[in-house]
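Q: Hi! First time asking for a complex rather than a single chain. Here are the components, and I think there are two in total. Is that enough to go on?
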Amino acid sequence: MYQFIENGSVTVPKGFKASGVFCGIKKKKKDLALIYSDTPCIAAGTFTLNKVKAAPILITRDIIEKNQKVKAVLINSGNANACTGDPGHKDALLMQKWCAESLHILPEEVLIGSTGVIGQKLPIEKLFSGINHAVENLSHHGGMDAAKAIMTTDTKIKSFAVCIQLNGGIVTLGAICKGSGMIAPNMATMLGFITTDADIEKSLLQKILLEAVDISFNKISVDGESSTNDMVLLLANGQSGISINESSDDLIIFVEALNTLCKEMAKSIVSDGEGATKLVTISVKNAKSKNDADLIGKSIANSSLVKTAIYGADANWGRILSAAGHSGAEIDPTKVSISFNELPVLLPNFNLTLDENSAHKILSLPEYVINVDIGLGSGEATWWTCDLTEDYIKINSDYRS
Amino acid sequence: MYQFIENGSVTVPKGFKASGVFCGIKKKKKDLALIYSDTPCIAAGTFTLNKVKAAPILITRDIIEKNQKVKAVLINSGNANACTGDPGHKDALLMQKWCAESLHILPEEVLIGSTGVIGQKLPIEKLFSGINHAVENLSHHGGMDAAKAIMTTDTKIKSFAVCIQLNGGIVTLGAICKGSGMIAPNMATMLGFITTDADIEKSLLQKILLEAVDISFNKISVDGESSTNDMVLLLANGQSGISINESSDDLIIFVEALNTLCKEMAKSIVSDGEGATKLVTISVKNAKSKNDADLIGKSIANSSLVKTAIYGADANWGRILSAAGHSGAEIDPTKVSISFNELPVLLPNFNLTLDENSAHKILSLPEYVINVDIGLGSGEATWWTCDLTEDYIKINSDYRS
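A: Yes, that's all I need. Here is the structure of the assembled complex.
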């Protein structure tokens, strides 16, 4: 019904162009991305719950909440424009205005985002020429450049596209994202920009985006932090001519594709977590409630002791159980069982079936699943985490310098 | 009114002996500690809130809750006897029984504790001769040996004593503790054993211990984890002949000394946090409520990004503000001010007064204070944290091997 397109990006859906340029916020690398639709888009979004919100978050959220149609998203990297007060807010409005002028559209048709260091003034003068440059460079092949331009400590370009066969014809989804450190639960926990040529009305678009984000970006953990700048946006320009509504059969297929796309985006962020060498799925089953399953998954995914054990390929199921135990969820430790992929490690009543050699083989894989069966109910949750390594420390102890 | 005694320990209060011996759970180092009072003690205690509780925790908590008088505390290190099921519970009862027999007292007069690897069977046969050895070695100078014998990844012996001048005469407090990784909020978050020769009845002793632990051990963070085995015990044998009760003036002085002792113990644990090189006090003022101040202090103290910035001596106030912002507490970022010791860094309305050179000097000190003024109310909280370094990763990625 749907399939991923190799080397796909936000420019796969009809009518979307993108670019990524260097404007001088960073020392050398691309630091300004632009996504543009030649017809107006319905836009949905979800934003950081951190009480400290960067200026671009407030401006973009306002446009989304007012249900305004938009045509462009402009994102700079290298500077978060967060904790910058009134001058920062003015800078954010300026970059929005300049972009609108250069594109000959209205300022409120431009969504904006920033990522990078907190608390430093945006070098706004550099954006002026940068924005014109980004507009000039807009192209149907510019998705990868845009993906590059939103990276900070990311080591891999994160770009995707999905082709979906609906009853009415083909629609496509494209996406780029970034995020490496400061990834944590709570909601939109990085930057993600999704485009589609499907025709969907605002409230439905917002609803399916929130649901997709809840089972993807909100279920990943690199370091338990939640940034001032996180957002995920979804823009639909309708250019496929195929309309998806609440009652259409196509909705189920489209939602499934969107959910899978968001999970792939989220996993790409975890597996590129700062210093990370492993991508581990935490699958919690049979918790007392869905909420309990979520608390347990989150606690395991966030545990520094579990994450260092993952790094050391150490079958330390005790740390997994201990993390579940201090999650706040209902736990009877005698009812818990744990397995690594298909290998049972702990059975109820602390029956240990751990075969250290087999376990070590699995734990040395770049990707595996830790299954935790709580044995109390039917609540389920899936989280993704990475290991905590010396490189995380190195990256974060001198990020500013 | 009170002063710390150099090289003091649990054996400073009258009537207490202690020992620390090697029994073979660890490869070479002391791994069995015994504290003994020659007269019965009133005992207070506080225990881990982790739902996964080790066998010795359950047994000791039961004795404390039944208000039984006790004479001894036996603690092994190297093995936590946690997640060991019924066999583990039997082993814990056995170590209690053998200790009672060797001391010619009742099993319920022996409190027990364990610390070390989770999920491995206690080599109980080694404890049989070890316990006799510990009993034989009991002495009025054995406090330091006991402090050594409860260490796991600790690099420093943690032993204290305080001499308190009351109106009625002198009483003393002694203490040993351990804890290095797996230190986190929530309550008794490591092992701490406090002795006193004051005469205090149970409910008052329990009350002042809980209050002291709440402003000390419950305010420290090494890695946000909360172990299966944490406890703090306070034993009072009354041998000073000085009685302290709810209405006595001496209570205030005694409580102040106990609080200070617990804070020193807690700080000694943080500053010896796994891989830690710095001890940082997080002082939160003028939050909307006491609870909000606590949430903010906890969020900053637990933030991996703040902890790596502390390691890098990086004046990254943005990470501090961001951690406060996702603490769940009420925050208006424009009202927050931050200083390092006496050096203002951020003033309200994002007025930046950061002098990088002066800041770097303070942040290079082994101890300093991060002051965070929320500007919304009068809630206060003090937390202690350490930096997150490569060594934390090294220690925890191969702890079991």
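A: Residues 182-189 of chain A have pLDDT under 50 and may be disordered. Let me know if you'd like any chain examined more closely.
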